[in-house]
Specification:
By secondary structure, this protein is of the alpha+beta class. 33% of the residues lie in helices and 32% in strands. The strands form 3 sheets. Strands 1-2-5-6 form a 4-stranded antiparallel beta sheet. A 4-stranded antiparallel beta sheet has the order 7-8-9-10, with no helix packed on it. The N and C termini lie far apart (77 Å).
Amino acid sequence: MRKAIVKKNRTHVYFAVLFAVLISVSIGFYFGTIYKDKNEARISSASKNTGTAEDQNERKRLLVKKCGDIPREKLEIKAGQFVGIDGPEWSPDCRHIAYSLFSSGTVAINEDGAATSVKGNADEGIYVYDVDTEKIKKIQLEGYESPIFERWVDSDLLLFSFIGAERLQTTYSIGFERPVSEVNRF
């Protein structure tokens, strides 16, 4: 009789543990799908058409009106004859300014017609100026050459493109300090 009671108690314990594991997995799955859906919605907004050039210029004018003039002397932009500059542009929350520098004339056409980037100068890259710390950070991106700043997606995400074997657009998270999506657009 005692063995039957012990065996019955063990069965209840097994079912309780199994039930707890199933509940934990279900909760994890639920939160995982919520996070995934939010993340995909945020990234997909980067690939939406932002309107005409006039709309973008109006957005930039409104940001300058809201945030003030861009302190170009603090950005340390060394413009030269073959240096292209995209930006600078305020982030929507007025906490950062992003811009890119690239060397023009550094793309060669291969025999098969594909564009190949020739090594540009060391200053090429995407830069983010932090207004609070007054420091400039160069965004280090492995495998990306000649990045071109496009626009801010929101206060944390910026959109840039680069020309290599093919032209890609990528969103980069300032908070996570890494690219969060890559879309072949061209």
